[in-house]
Amino acid sequence: MDISIPPQVDDILRKLTGNGQEACVVGGCVRDSLLGRKPNDWDVATSSRPEETKRIFAGTPTIETGLKHGTVTVLSGGMPVEVTTYRVDGAYSDGRHPDAVAFTGSLKEDLARRDFTINALAYRPGSGLVDLFGGRDDLAGRRIRCVGEADRRFREDGLRILRALRFASVLGFSIEQETAAAALRNRELLDRIAKERIQAEFTKLLCGKGAAKILREYREIIARFIPEIRPAFGFEQHNPHHSFDVWEHTLRCVDAVEPEPALRLAVFLHDLGKPSCYSRDADGVGHFYGHAAAGGELARKILARLRYDKKTAGTVLTLVKCHDQPLPPDERLLRRRLNKLGEKNLRLLFRVAAADTKGKSPADRARLASLRKAEAVLETLLARNACFSLGGLAVNGGDLLKIGVPEGTEVGRTLRALLDAVMDGKCPNSKEALLAYARKGVTGP
Ligand code: ATP
Ligand code: MG
Fold first, then answer.
1. Measuring from atom 11 of ligand 1, which residue has the nearest CA?
2. Which one of 16, 241, 246, 419 has the lowest number of neighbouring Cβ atoms within 10 Å?
3. For 40-49, 95-104, 248-257, 261-270, which range has the lowest pLDDT when averaged over its residues?
4. pLDDT category of residue 385 using cuts at 50, 70 and 90
5. Model confidence pLDDT, tens digit, residues 59-113
6. Which atom of ligand 1 lies nearest, measured to the CA of 39?
7. At the fourth CATH level, which superfamily is domain 7-135?
8. What are phi and psi of 227, to 5 degrees?
9. Which fold has domain 142-225?
């Protein structure tokens, strides 16, 4: 079994071995290569100590990424490659980081400290795969399994619980029974993990192809850091448009939306406001008036707690709060939506609305068709450069002053009135027409 290693990485391996050291590629890049996926980055493990590594690469730019942990980043032909000394981790007293790491000459010891068997594979050109923990078998069986005793490995570093879920979701794998049971059993260990780390793993999990399956199976682990999902579990909607409970509907929507962080997050959070807004009418039909706003409140708290950046949180909040607004194939209304949301968010809102519809049972094909039509209308509006903001108007404040509109708040009011007239199709967006419209006295008495 051969792995095709980029020349920049091969170069590093050769230099290290040429200096009497052992060196191999290790971890994610080996896993991804064997799966036929393109590795994100290439990591090198070596018997060479950091000082020695720096000496060997004296002629090449290097970055001291984490000398204490044995990592030197070598910029090989412009490509950053982490070169890390074989190491064993000391005791883990904080449930996340080893108190100390010790270098070792043994690849076996280095592989044994790694989290999952599929991440504990190494490869050396010439001698081939080093698979000491059954990683290749688990790749073939599409399983995530801890290296060694799962309970102990999760107690060392609680983040591994979420990493197990993340890899399972991204790769479309399942989690081996022992590892799964230990992950569930030890879920309170996540309380000690930095929220930023949880956020990073959770976002990748959400964007994985197996997200719904993993969220469904391991909801108790997710509820450890997002307890707000709990009321959605099994919450029946008693509505002819919904045969799924709120949680199951949510999961189906997650799988139905494009795997981009803001979209997946928005869809994951969109209906969390439902349980607190539930009512039933005289016919016994369930309603959730105000759930988008209530969901927005929950989402705001969750996104802040998990330290999402302002931009992502802002987009997600907008989408959650607007997710149930009608999006009919109507030019006038779509211009209004463009004015309120802007092009980018409105496009995203269409993705959320489509997913929300796909996640329903029975399927609402008429609504999907209507959404597709509305998107086509939006595209033509945008292609024609339709005006939906003050900046897009063919006149500005200066033009209005010239025709005698009094300085001050009147100018803004007139511009807004002109924009409304354009968006409503009452006035074309040309300077002449707008000034004539303004002269006719849109400003009123
Ligand atoms: P990707 O880069 O695609 O997210 P990866 O497997 O390369 O996946 P990294 O987080 O880059 O993941 O870690 C590189 C390697 O380091 C892993 O493959 C694994 O062998 C080891 N590793 C990373 N984090 C841990 C951890 N928390 N516990 C044990 N080993 C870990
Ligand atoms: Mg990596």
1. 28
2. 241
3. 95-104
4. confident
5. 999 999 888 889 999 999 999 999 999 999 888 888 888 888 899 999 999 999 9
6. 3
7. Beta Polymerase, domain 2 (3.30.460.10)
8. -65, -15
9. Hydrophobic Seed Protein (1.10.110)
Q: What is the pLDDT of residues 204-237, one digit of tens each?
A: 999 999 999 999 999 999 999 999 999 999 999 9
Cα(165) to ligand 2 centroid in Å equals 16
User: CB of 229 within 8 A of CB of 251?
Assistant: no
Residue 51, pLDDT above cutoff 50? yes
- Closest to 168 (Cα-Cα) out of 102, 137, 135, 212: 212
How many angstroms is it from 119 CA to the middle of ligand 1? Answer: 7
Q: Which two tokens stand for residue 329?
A: 């194939």
How far does residue 28's CA lie from ligand 1's centre (Å)? 6
Contacts of 444 (CB under 8 A, 6+ apart): none
Å from CA of 28 to ligand 2 middle: 5
**Residue where the block lists tokens 């399956």:** 213
Nearest CA to ligand 1 atom 8: 28
Write the burial class of residue 44 (CB in 10 Å: 0-12 exposed, 13-18 middle, 19+ buried): buried
Rounded Cα–Cα distance for residues 67 and 53 (Å): 10
Ligand 1 site residues, Cβ closer than 6 angstroms = 27-28, 40, 43, 114-115, 119-120, 157, 159-160
The ligand that comes nearest to the alpha carbon of residue 88 is 1
Return the DSSP state at 439. I
Q: Are 346 and 337 in contact (CB under 8 A)?
A: yes
Q: What's the 227 CA to ligand 2 centre distance in angstroms?
A: 30
* Predicted TM-score (pTM) of this structure: 0.93
> Mutate which of 24, 94, 115 to test ligand 1's pocket (most atoms within 8 Å of Cβ)?
115
Ligand 2 is an ion; its neighbours by CB within 5 Å are 28, 41
Contact at 8 Å (CB) between 305 and 279? no
Rounded Cα distance between 338 and 346, Å, is 6
pLDDT for the residue numbered 442: 55
Closest residue by CA, ligand 1 atom 25: 115
